[in-house]
Amino acid sequence: MSSYYKEKKRTPTLDARTEPILEVLRRLDASETGTLQRERLVRLICSLIPEMSPESVEMLMDCSLHADQVNVRYQEFITWLFDGLAMRKSISSGGAHTISVATWNVAAVNNNPFEYWLAHDDPHYVNLMLAVERCLSFPEAAWDVRVSEIFTEEMFQELKVLMLDHGIAGVEEVEESMWRGSDLRLRDRHVVSEFIKDKSLGSKRLISMPDRITNTVQVVTRVPSEYKPPPACRPTVINNYLGDLSTLEVWWTSWKRFMFLEPLAVRTQKGLSVRLPCHMLEPIPRSKYPAISEKEERLAIPLQILCQAIFDAVLVHLMHHCSPDGTWQVVKSQICQNLYRCKAQRTMEILETKYHTVDVIFLQEVASNFSDFFQRSSLAKDFKCVSPPSMDGKRDQNSLLLLSKTRFDDTIEDVTAVIEECMEDGVRLVSSDLVAVAVSGRDQRSYLLASFHGDTAGCLTLPLLRALFSCAAKRFPRHVLILGLDANSYEPPKAEQLPFTSLLEEAKKLGLSTCFGDDPDVSKCRTTCCARTSLQPQLNKAIRYKDRVSLSDRNPKDLITFNRQQLRLMSPTEVGQMNPVKDNTGQLRYEEAMNFPTFDFPSDHAIVAALLQHVDG
Predict the structure, then answer these.
(1) Phi, psi of 607 (to 5 degrees)
(2) 506 within 8 A of 462, measured Cβ to Cβ
(3) How far apart are the first and last CA of the chain?
(4) Chain segment 257-316, per-residue pLDDT in tens
(5) 3-state DSSP assignment of residue 568
(6) Cα 394 to Cα 177: distance, rounded to the nearest angstrom
(7) CB 262 within 8 A of CB 219
(8) What number of H helices and E strands is found in the chain?
């Protein structure tokens, strides 16, 4: 059990925990020198104490007086290590002068199970993804056939009739100038080299735009009800559709039925709407996407439907080529089971088993059904769940707070709107991205706690920090301020992205510190490691298998900030192990060179936890 979290079971005595470990180490010390090689001892300790990572053991060796760069006096080091754990237990059980916090962007459900590389050692998965990568990287005549050989003329004519029957304008013109004619000549293109990999189709959003709208449709009941139906998935390789895709003929029958024959009840800004997916598509404005021509803009609806049909057909064709025995559907089903259907259960299991003794848990990108799982979990006995004033059920990404009932009383005031009022002119947050409360602690202190999810480029993070600090100074000067957030900061940043260094500088100006310190080594602050595969509509963003770690999105996005005049980060020597802790395994460990999510850890953001001490304590 990590030393940050108070173990509810009886803790063994110091001798009872150290002696079995020392006995093993003495047997390995054949020369009886009292020392072991450092590298070897790190491996041994990690095998004997599974909750400790190699990084945390190395860090503790650096902090101790019993190790150099080559050898370690193992008896002294192990005794010192467990003394530190015992000291932390005494600090933790005091409770009044420390507070444990954790932040986690649990990540919205990914509609495409193949979109990101997984740390998944199943050879069927690896072989499938490598085969797809080869097909797309090195097109050959065996699979890079013409579109009309996959999406046939007969299929196009069926699609044409369906679009005309549903009142879609411009179908004949699309046939003449886009399907057959020289404008796009879609039917004569090679499926990989001239369709899937055509950057112009990508820049025109003719595939990604309709996919975004129809990939996974969040449906509702036609009569108001607390029941939330499962989403409707377009029959395609790149979503959680689990129907039969064993042949192109089977896929085509299901695809037509989804797009044109089965109306879906959806929630819109104007209320309930029952529509066919083919009528959900939106225009592609040339003002926003200048790559699209005037004619393509005018014919955007039928052209999107056609491009989407071709794209989905080509993916089924490629999967059959790469996995002729149909194993790919088994692989897809396993991913869907672990990262889609069981995502909420696994998220709750990690919080229940590893973070149940933390005082405050800040959560971001939480689905609206989280509260249902929370109420059925053991956490409901120990925590109060605080949601934003208006939960976003459509985008389904909400920030939440879990507050320990033993640490805080029931006097909880939602102050989200108060902080939003302090935002700079012209800057507005998505309401469900922030939740903030003023709450009374049982330690006779008052707290201002906020959970925030920044926009993709992190543009709103610094304005939020300034607004929160201003609000705290003016309205809640005696409250202890703590913020857990996904800042969406980057190092190094690309154009328009928030630099992590700028975030740290702004925090310093405001008198805030972070769980990583004021001038941390950025490489130790990374909380993401995800990379896109080739099985998604934006092929320009794909990373090859061999580069899936080195070229992944490895950035310091998640952290905890607090007022340095009120709180300080306890040192590793005080705590007895690393502080803060990063976790991308669900086991209180962080694997630096591992893509995630994984089957065990269902988010693309790591958990960050820290033990803080009140300055007045």
Answers:
(1) -80, 140
(2) yes
(3) 26
(4) 999 999 999 887 678 899 999 999 999 999 999 999 999 999 999 999 999 999 999 999
(5) strand
(6) 37
(7) no
(8) 21, 21
Answer yes or no: is pLDDT of 9 > 50.
Answer: no
Token pair for 338: 């672990």
CB of 475 closer than 8 Å to CB of 507: no
CATH classification number, 14-93, choose in 1.10.3210, 2.40.50, 1.10.12, 1.10.238: 1.10.238
CB atoms within 10 A of CB 262: 10
For the chain, give percent helix, strand, coil, nearest 5.
40, 20, 40
With tokens 């065990």, the residue in question is 600
Number of other residues whose CB lies within 10 A of the CB of residue 72: 26
212 is written with which tokens?
């975004």
How many CA within 13 A on the CB side of residue 39?
1
Write out the H or E segment, with its range, that includes residue 366.
strand 360-366
For the chain, how big is the Rg over CA atoms in Å?
Answer: 27
The burial class, CB within 10 Å (0-12 / 13-18 / 19+), for 459 is: middle
For residue 85, the model assigns a pLDDT of 54
Q: Classify burial at 51, counting beta carbons within 10 Å of its beta carbon; exposed 0-12, middle 13-18, buried 19 or more.
A: middle
Where are the chain's structural domains?
14-93, 97-111+339-528+554-614, 123-338
Beta bridge pairs of residue 452: 434, 485
Average pLDDT for the chain: 90
Q: Which two tokens stand for residue 201?
A: 């189709």
Sequence letter at residue 302: P
CATH for the 97-111+339-528+554-614 domain, from 3.30.70.120, 3.40.50.150, 3.90.1510.10, 3.60.10.10? 3.60.10.10
Between β-strands 271-275 and 35-37, what pairing exists: parallel, antiparallel or unpaired?
A: unpaired
**What was the pLDDT predicted at 414?**
96
Lookup: tokens for 213: 């709208």
Reported confidence tier of residue 218, pLDDT bands at 50, 70, 90: confident
Residue 549, Cβ density class (10 Å: 0-12 exposed, 13-18 middle, ≥19 buried): middle
Look at the pTM and tell me if it is higher than 0.90.
no
pLDDT tens profile 51-87: 677 877 887 787 677 788 888 988 888 887 776 555 4
For residue 444, give both structure tokens: 């006779």
